[in-house]
């Protein structure tokens, strides 16, 4: 901000400080790109890119314990726009759903009065995105409609629920972490509460395992191998309640499903992270910390790669990436090969200095890109770390045994063009490639670059230190100082430093270390300098060290104002600066006051011992400066006249003026005139004294006897003709000096601590501070205007007060915050769009719904009439100028890298769609375009390879490097999915520790067609096991199955009977044995096991058969009772049913997505424009053109309409007649002509 623009209007705001312990878990980083953080009872909204606080939400009465941004997993249009919704829960059980932009509460929810334990928005069905699941202590889960505040259902459980985690792959699975163990719920649905009480699994502490009790020999490697994990798993998961001595304290800190692969869960303990495979409920990986290491406090698993962000107790964040299971170096030692999942430490950031009051609380990860982390520290700091990838080999360190990480060769889901610009650090999956799976061929290392990962600190937000505070606003804005005025607030802190905040932006202007002990008071002596005083704690005589410092802000120079004085004397009570900033009175507790000249820094008078004890003191606003100036002017004019000769008398006027100005400035500097000023003070008896100071003479004036109704006077304020006295009993006495009237009012609030008049001529408002609150009075009417009371309407005590403008007050409170409030002293939330931010923030969610969609279309439809542009004014766009301006501000706030990529002609349509959905944090768009772009390219590639195979509808395998990430689960290519499942069964096999596990492994192997291995496992059953006979027979059956007709039909008959009698799994196994997996899938689907059927189809069936099974699944997903059309679309994409996808998108009214998708299909040649498809193509292009017209983008509308056949021509005519779509009033005649030129 250049120093010459003055924003006189200050926004109401809150400067926050340290966090309370209950705020520990109250932080969330949303898809919208912002961080929400609870601070006492307020919520800060932080923009991590520019490290600014852009909003503070205040409405909670108790500490905020949880915050959650709503998910963006839905299609955005005008009726469900991009908007900032946040849910926050507090310690009294209230949940508030906020509209963050306007700072208002959308709805409030209350069930019980205990702190909310956990909450999460449901993101998985297309019907409603307003559902919020919350844990109300001790043991209820309640599903709320967060739009209306209605309770949908409530269910109680037997144990206390600490937190929960949804299965990201299957929304009907929910795991609750309770005080005794884990409860798995498999029938979660938004329409009714779960029917069962769930499956209970008890956890015994892993420390009961022997690996911890015996000391490890020095030479042996750290015990992270399989043996330790086996020991652990025996005590870890049991379905029976463990005996009392087996259970030590359940110190499981956290449970989360892994979003990167299905059916895996993570349990966090202070010294290890366990990865469980839920199909076997058993540990398949351990990340352990050695003895000297720093314990974990939190871990966040990533979705894009199998990686973990871990937060340690010293504030260090580490990134661990899962090792590829097919690393060639390990094959030499068969013992070591695939023993367990290993997470290698790939990067770590610096730790913080941990003290009693400074501890790391929580970290959050950017959910869109997963390459940025923010650490919240208990002292109110937010540290923003970014993960950067550096190409180049690591320093050779063979002992670490880490295989290198490679960067992917693609950008935004497509291979890089030769001169294409890219942003390597765009997201985690564009920084490191996929980890390999056993049986996969490693790509040629020639094309791939090795990368190293490093954390970089890109932002730091710090809060106020611990209270108490002394605050003072700089002198008010006047017509004289308007050109260089800055609204600065000085805040003195308990450690002796003074923080100066600029209230326009709310940012720290300077932090000055001035004193060695607690600052007691601050007084400004000009716009850029102030005096502050501090007193040390008293010695046994009751004497202290007083420090009175003069601070010059621009230079930061401090000097001791009282020179050598200050040691071993009674403490300073207050300092008061006169109105013209000439004199300073220093009042001591048990010592007469001192009078100083501020301009020269000299002591004018130290009062005699007999001087009365001062209880309150105030300078008078009246002085004789004007009359003195007049006298001086007259004298100077006379001087000037003498110097000008008589001859030039005529043209003297102008020169006299310049001479006068000259003389004026000289005299100002050399011999400043000393105006006469007065102050009044009261003594312990309540007598009012009046004292006049002029130059270095001090005269005693009149004395006014005490008013009988008042107690001991505590403070005085004087403005114009009004003098107000406040006493220790809560009485206010208003004196009208002109009319010589006094009026006393008892407020009954106890001691009047401070009273201050508001700045501004004729503004007679008065701010009064009591021990239990603050009031604003109008002294003209002698009545109270507004008030804040501790315990009644706020839950914090006020420590200090001041006016910051003529209509806003600033209050320091004991929750560590400084609040700027309107005179009515309501909440400090404000509209974000009225904010004056120092750095522009990229967040389309701050725009009006229409403008956000326009911005998206503007970025998607580049180039505009042939040119790539980042200037919205170059486009034919009919809209109010201010909205255009706001959109342009958003465009300007993008980084130069992003702008250059968005304007790169090499960027394909698919890559552009992916990049824009990343920029908008649009979860639903991102998933759709990731899958769409992958399969469009795969099918286009297959088509080129063999046109004949494409006619038969076969899916030929694309290049091995390029497969979808496994986090897409059943949407991956069958061949890759199969390899992954085999890999997983091998791991389960190594890890099995009981007959149950072995049985499950054998079943999986049979389904996967690995009969030989399955037979070996079946024969392991010991003779004393009741299933010994059964398993032996099964082994014989598996080995002797031949494809002869009779045996096949017998087995099929047996299998169908089994299924009919409720033995579904066993029947399906038999069918798989005789290669009737397609029938097996059909049975599974009939019995509602849709996910299992899809899994089996992927691992066992030929592409054509598997495609039939998955198509049936997609139809099921579209049915009204399931209503997961968006998932059905992804399934159809993976099958290459592109025409069907286009139809569905269009019928669901996803107009922009449909049009851009069909356009991409035509570009890649996987859809032909023929008679059958033209109807769909034209309809969707026409609807997109209409959508663009409603957004005001006429040029874009014309472009798409021109490709939409006959109906499109009609729309073109409407567009450029100014009839219909755009009201004629909006378009001037010249604009219409311009529009026509641009389309021709």
TrEMBL record:
One of its GO terms (cellular component) is Golgi apparatus. The keyword Nuclease does not apply. It is found in: Cytoplasm, Cytoskeleton, Cilium axoneme; Cytoplasm, Cytoskeleton, Cilium basal body; Cytoplasmic vesicle; Golgi apparatus, trans-Golgi network. GO terms for biological process: animal organ development; cilium assembly. The lineage of its organism: Eukaryota, Metazoa, Chordata, Craniata, Vertebrata. InterPro entries: Beta-prop_WDR11_1st, Beta-prop_WDR11_2nd, Quinoprotein_ADH-like_sf, TPR_WDR11, WD40/YVTN_repeat-like_dom_sf, WD40_repeat_dom_sf, WD40_rpt, WDR11. Pfam families: Beta-prop_WDR11_1st (PF23751), Beta-prop_WDR11_2nd (PF23752), TPR_WDR11 (PF23753). This is WD repeat-containing protein 11. The keyword Nucleus applies. Residues 993-1165 form the WDR11 TPR domain. Residues 486-825 form the WDR11 second beta-propeller domain. Keywords: Cell projection, Cytoplasm, Cytoplasmic vesicle, Cytoskeleton, Golgi apparatus, Nucleus, Phosphoprotein, Repeat, WD repeat. PANTHER family: WD REPEAT-CONTAINING PROTEIN 11. Residues 20-318 form the WDR11 first beta-propeller domain.
């Amino acid at each position: 901000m250049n120093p010459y623009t003055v924003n006189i209007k200050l926004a109401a705001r809150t400067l926050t400080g340290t966090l309370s312990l209950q705020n520990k878990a109250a932080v969330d980083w949303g898809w919208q790109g912002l961080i929400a953080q609870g601070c006492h009872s307020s919520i800060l909204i932080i923009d991590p890119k520019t490290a600014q606080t852009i909003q503070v939400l205040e409405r909670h009465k108790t500490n905020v314990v949880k915050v959650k941004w709503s998910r963006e997993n839905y299609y955005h249009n005008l009726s469900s726009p991009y908007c900032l919704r946040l849910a926050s829960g507090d310690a009294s059980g209230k949940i508030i759903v906020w509209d963050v932009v306007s700072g208002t509460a959308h709805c409030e929810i209350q069930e019980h009065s205990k702190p909310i334990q956990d909450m999460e928005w449901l993101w998985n069905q297309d019907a409603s995105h307003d559902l919020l699941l919350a844990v109300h202590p001790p043991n209820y889960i309640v599903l709320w409609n967060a739009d209306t505040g209605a309770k949908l259902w409530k269910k109680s459980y037997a144990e206390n629920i600490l937190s929960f985690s949804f299965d990201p792959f299957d929304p009907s699975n929910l795991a609750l972490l309770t005080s005794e163990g884990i409860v798995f719920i498999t029938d979660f649905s938004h329409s009714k509460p779960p029917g069962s009480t769930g499956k209970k699994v008890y956890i015994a502490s892993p420390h009961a395992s022997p690996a911890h009790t015996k000391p490890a020999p020095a030479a042996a490697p750290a015990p992270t191998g399989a043996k330790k994990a086996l020991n652990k798993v025996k005590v870890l998961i049991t379905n029976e309640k463990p005996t009392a001595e087996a259970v030590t304290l359940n110190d499981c800190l956290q449970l989360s499903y892994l979003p990167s692969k299905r059916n895996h869960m993570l349990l966090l303990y202070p010294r290890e992270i366990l990865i469980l495979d839920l199909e076997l409920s058993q540990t398949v990986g351990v990340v352990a910390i050695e003895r000297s290491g720093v314990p974990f406090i939190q871990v966040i698993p990533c979705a894009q790669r199998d990686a973990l962000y871990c937060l340690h107790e010293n504030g260090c964040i580490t990134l661990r990436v899962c090792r590829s299971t097919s690393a060639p170096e390990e094959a030499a030692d068969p013992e070591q090969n695939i023993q367990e999942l290993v997470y290698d430490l790939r990067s770590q950031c610096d730790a913080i200095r941990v003290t009693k009051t400074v501890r790391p609380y929580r970290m959050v990860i950017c959910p869109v890109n997963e390459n940025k982390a923010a650490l919240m520290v208990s002292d109110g700091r937010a540290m923003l770390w970014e993960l950067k990838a550096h190409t180049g080999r690591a320093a050779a360190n063979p002992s670490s045994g880490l295989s290198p990480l490679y960067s992917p060769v693609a950008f935004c889901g497509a291979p890089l063009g030769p001169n294409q610009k890219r942003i390597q650090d765009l997201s985690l999956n564009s920084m490191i490639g996929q980890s390999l799976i056993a049986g996969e061929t490693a790509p040629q290392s020639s094309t791939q670059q090795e990368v190293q990962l490093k954390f970089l600190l890109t932002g730091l937000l710090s809060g106020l230190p611990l209270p108490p505070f002394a605050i003072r606003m700089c002198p008010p804005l006047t017509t004289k100082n308007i050109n260089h005025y800055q609204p600065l607030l000085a805040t003195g802190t308990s450690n002796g430093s003074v923080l100066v905040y600029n209230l326009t932006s709310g940012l720290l202007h300077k932090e000055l270390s001035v004193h060695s002990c607690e600052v007691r008071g601050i007084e400004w002596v000009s716009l850029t300098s102030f005096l502050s005083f501090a007193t040390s704690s008293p010695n046994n005589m009751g004497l202290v060290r007083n420090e009175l410092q003069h601070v010059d802000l621009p230079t930061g120079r401090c000097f001791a104002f009282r020179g050598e004085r200050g040691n071993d004397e009674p403490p300073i009570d207050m300092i008061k600066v006169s109105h013209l900033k000439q004199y300073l009175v220093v009042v001591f507790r048990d010592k007469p006051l001192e009078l100083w000249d501020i301009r020269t820094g000299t002591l004018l008078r130290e009062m005699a011992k007999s001087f009365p004890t001062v209880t309150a003191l105030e300078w008078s606003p009246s002085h004789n400066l004007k009359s003195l100036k007049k006298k001086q002017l007259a004298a100077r004019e006379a001087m000037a006249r003498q110097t000008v000769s008589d001859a030039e008398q005529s043209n003297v006027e102008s020169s006299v003026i310049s001479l006068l100005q000259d003389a004026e400035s000289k005299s100002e500097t050399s011999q400043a005139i000393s105006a006469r000023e007065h102050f009044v003070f009261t003594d312990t008896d309540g007598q009012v004294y009046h004292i006049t100071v002029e130059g270095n003479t001090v005269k005693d004036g009149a004395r006014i006897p005490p008013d009988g109704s008042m107690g001991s006077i505590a403070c005085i304020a004087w403005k114009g003709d009004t003098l107000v006295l406040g006493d220790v009993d809560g009485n206010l006495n208003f004196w009208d000096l002109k009319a010589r009237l006094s009026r006393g009012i008892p407020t009954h609030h106890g001691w009047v601590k401070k009273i201050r008049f508001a700045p501004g001529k004729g503004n007679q408002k008065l701010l009064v501070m009591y021990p239990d609150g603050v009031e604003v009075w109008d002294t003209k009417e002698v009545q109270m205007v507004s008030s804040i009371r501790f315990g009644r309407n706020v839950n914090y005590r006020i420590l200090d007060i001041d006016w910051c403008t003529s209509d806003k007050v600033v209050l320091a409170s004991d929750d560590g915050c400084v609040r700027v409030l309107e005179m009515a002293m309501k909440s400090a939330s404000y509209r974000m769009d009225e904010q004056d931010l120092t750095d522009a923030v990229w967040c389309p969610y701050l725009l009006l719904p229409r403008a956000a969609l326009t911005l998206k279309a503007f970025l998607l439809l580049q180039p505009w009439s042939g040119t790539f542009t980042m200037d919205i004014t170059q486009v034919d766009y009919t809209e109010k100028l201010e909205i255009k301006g706001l959109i342009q501000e958003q465009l300007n706030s993008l980084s130069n890298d992003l702008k250059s990529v968005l304007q790169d002609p090499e960027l394909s349509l698919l890559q552009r769609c992916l990049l824009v959905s990343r920029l908008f944090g649009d979860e639903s768009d991102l998933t759709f375009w990731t899958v769409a772009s992958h399969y469009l390219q795969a099918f286009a590639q297959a088509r080129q390879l063999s046109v004949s195979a494409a006619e038969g509808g076969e899916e030929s395998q694309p290049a091995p490097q390029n497969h979808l990430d496994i986090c897409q689960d059943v949407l991956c290519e069958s061949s890759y999915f199969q390899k992954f499942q085999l890999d997983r069964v091998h791991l389960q096999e190594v890890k099995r520790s009981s007959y149950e596990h072995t049985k499950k492994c054998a079943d999986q192997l049979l389904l996967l067609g690995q009969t030989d291995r399955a037979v070996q496992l079946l024969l392991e059953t010991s003779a004393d096991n009741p299933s010994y006979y059964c398993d032996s027979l099964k082994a014989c059956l598996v080995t002797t199955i031949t494809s002869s007709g009779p045996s096949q039909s017998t087995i099929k008959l047996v299998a169908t009977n089994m299924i009919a009698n409720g033995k579904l799994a066993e029947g399906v196994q038999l069918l798989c044995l005789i290669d009737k997996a397609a029938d097996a899938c059909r049975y599974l689907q009939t019995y509602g096991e849709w996910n299992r059927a899809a899994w089996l189809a992927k691992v066992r069936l030929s592409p054509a058969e598997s495609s039939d099974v998955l198509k049936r699944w997609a139809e099921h997903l579209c049915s009204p009772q399931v209503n997961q059309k968006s998932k059905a679309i992804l399934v159809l994409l993976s099958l290459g049913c592109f025409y069907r996808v286009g139809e569905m998108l269009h019928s669901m009214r996803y107009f922009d997505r449909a049009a851009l998708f069909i356009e991409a299909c035509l570009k890649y040649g996987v859809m032909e424009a023929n008679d059958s498809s033209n109807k769909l193509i034209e309809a969707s292009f026409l609807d997109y053109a209409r959508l663009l017209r409603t957004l005001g983008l006429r040029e874009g509308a014309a472009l798409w309409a021109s490709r939409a056949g006959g109906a499109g021509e009609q729309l073109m005519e409407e567009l450029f007649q100014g009839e219909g779509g755009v009201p004629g009033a909006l378009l001037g005649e010249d604009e219409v002509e311009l529009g026509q030129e641009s389309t021709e």
